[in-house]
């Protein structure tokens, strides 16, 4: 045998031994794990795929639209604080559901519908969010709700209140934790409307104001009242004198004010001394900043969406305690519990789907779903996805320890008492 031939046979033997060893190693490990065609490890005994485990750890992305600047900046801040606290409360501090971490992105709409739409598109296209939440303005919100349908993503509306959001502009991807104008109207009318009462309304000239007045008018007229004036004002106005003069000339028994924003009309309403003309002012008790301009309205009968001393439940107790601890003793304000409720509703739905963000599964889960929130039990009505919720009939009274009048409970209005009509049919 030549030396070259002998070396060739030796090399062949070495290769055969190596192949046998490799086969033996693979065989020994087959009971523990197999290697898929993609090179991913799977457990052959359980049939579970490690890829599925990794998928279950994918983050759940939530994009929150809010007015973080401009006239409604305080509302946006309240929503943001409430939403962050709500996620923490609902997840017991883990900030995850079923092993999937929750990521939140806040975007400032600047209270401009075109900006709101642009920011929503960024969240949907660039960030790939699973949920949208927002916004502080009904105009901003209505500019975005169609995108939820186009992209087939759940949008939880908070705190916008225009009836049309869950009415004429409704789509199945919209769920609303905020109350709507009709819920405000029922509560507001219950405070002042009765047979023969003459009422003037005063509201900003956009969707929030128009929907609010329409809903209040219907509720008040059902109780026998007459609406003698509907006065709509530029939402950016600073001089309300001509509008208030029209109210005086209409000679109503009551002026019912619907307002949102930092440029409130309260100081000028007070300055024009409507009480001396026999006109009693009523409204929904606003946030604390606006309450500080309403000292002249002590004794006013009205309603409120929330004041931190009114709800009596464990969720609200937690919210008040945690908010004071984190924000230098500040109490949660008008829209803080709404932000918290929106967060709780999303987490509750995800718990029920075991972290699955399939939109059809989420819709089936959330329709009719009840959950515990700072205002008590809230329920997404199956027909229009409007959250039914508690409201509060109140009077404004002085508080020796505070520099503003506080809402004092007259009657708690149950979710059934304030359930609005279904308007999306």
Automatic annotation (TrEMBL):
It comes from the Bacteria. Residues 28-59 are annotated as: Disordered. SUPFAM superfamilies: Periplasmic binding protein-like I (SSF53822). Keywords: Signal. Residues 1-22 form the signal peptide. InterPro entries: BCAA_transport (IPR051010), Leu-bd (IPR028081), Peripla_BP_I (IPR028082). The keyword Signal applies. Residues 28-56 have a biased composition (Acidic residues). Pfam families: Peripla_BP_6. Residues 59-398 form the Leucine-binding protein domain. The keyword Signal applies. PANTHER family: LEUCINE-SPECIFIC-BINDING PROTEIN, PERIPLASMIC BINDING PROTEIN OF ABC TRANSPORTER FOR NATURAL AMINO ACIDS. Belongs to the leucine-binding protein family. This is ABC transporter permease. It comes from Halalkalibacillus sediminis.
